[in-house]
Amino acid sequence: MAAGAALWSGGAILNHGGATGIPAASSADSSSIGTVTTGESKDSSASTSSSSGSKPDEFYEVEIEKPYGIKFYKGTDGGTYIDALAPGGSAAKTKMFQPGDKVLATSAVFGNEIWPAAEYGRTMYTVRQRIGPLLMKMQKKYGEREDQAVSSEKLAAQRNANVISEQLREIQIQNYKRKMQLKKQREEDLRDGLQLYKKSAYQEALSKFESVLGSKPEGLEEAIASYNVACCYAKLDQVEAGLSALGEALEAGFEDYKKIRTDEDLASLRASPEFKALIDKYDEPIFNENAVKAIKGLFGFFGKT
C-alpha cells in the first residue's frame, strides 16, 4: 500500500512500503442482547421456496450489540452470509443465527436507517462502523451453506454409501473448482485493493480487502488482508474499526510486531490508549531497563566476585 501494503501472491508476502480480517470474539453478558423479533417478511418473496427446494423462505430480525461474535463469508452472489458464531458471544446468545443464513439488511452506520446488504465489502464496512445496537434482517437457510458447491447432506450421503461413485467424483471436482475460483478471486481483490490504496482511495481499497476476508482466505492470507483493512481504517481515522481489524490480523498470525509499532499507516491507531493493550497481548511489552537492573541487583546478579 502507499507507504505500506503487502500482497499475498503464490505463497509469498510482497512488501510495498507500508500496509501489508472476526477476532476471537469475546463473551458478552446477556444484557448485551437487544430485541429479537421473528416472523414472515412482508416482502412478496416470503411465500417462495428456499434454495433447498424443500423448505419455505423464512425471515427474521435480530438486534445485537458489540462484540457481535459473528464471522461472515462472501457468497457467489456477492452477498453476506453467516460463517460461524463465537460461543458465548452476543449473536450466539440470541439462539437465532445459524451458519449459512443470509444477511439481507443491517442498520446504517448510525441512526435508525436500514441499509440493504447488497455488497459484501460495504456491508462489512457498515457492521464494523456501526454506532449503537446493530439490527440485522436475515434470511434463514436451514444450515445449508451457499459457499459449498454441493450441499453437506448430499456429500455426507455419498460418503456414507462406502462407494467411490461417479457422483462423488463429480462432487469432489466441483468443490475443487470452487476452491480454485476463490483463490483466484482473492488474489485479484488483493492486487486491486493495493492499487486503490496507493491512490489513497481507502474506502474502495477497504471493500476489496474485506472481500478477501470473505472468500475463505488460507494460511497467512487472512492475517495480511486484516492488516490491510486495519491500515485503511487508520487512514480514514476510524480508530475503533481499525483496532478491531488489527486484532484480527494478530489473531490470524501476523507477527511483524516491529512493523505494527512503526508503520506510519497505523499512526492513528497507535495514538489510541487501547493500542498498547492490544499489541502487548501478542508481543512482549518493552521493559524498563532500569527496572530490570534493579531486579537483578535485588537478587544478587551484580557485585558478585
UniProtKB/TrEMBL annotation:
<dbReference type="InterPro" id="IPR036034">
    <property type="entry name" value="PDZ_sf"/>
</dbReference>
<dbReference type="InterPro" id="IPR011990">
    <property type="entry name" value="TPR-like_helical_dom_sf"/>
</dbReference>
<feature type="region of interest" description="Disordered">
    <location>
        <begin position="23"/>
        <end position="58"/>
    </location>
</feature>
<feature type="compositionally biased region" description="Low complexity">
    <location>
        <begin position="44"/>
        <end position="54"/>
    </location>
</feature>
<feature type="domain" description="PDZ">
    <location>
        <begin position="68"/>
        <end position="107"/>
    </location>
</feature>
<dbReference type="InterPro" id="IPR001478">
    <property type="entry name" value="PDZ"/>
</dbReference>
<protein>
    <recommendedName>
        <fullName>PDZ domain-containing protein</fullName>
    </recommendedName>
</protein>
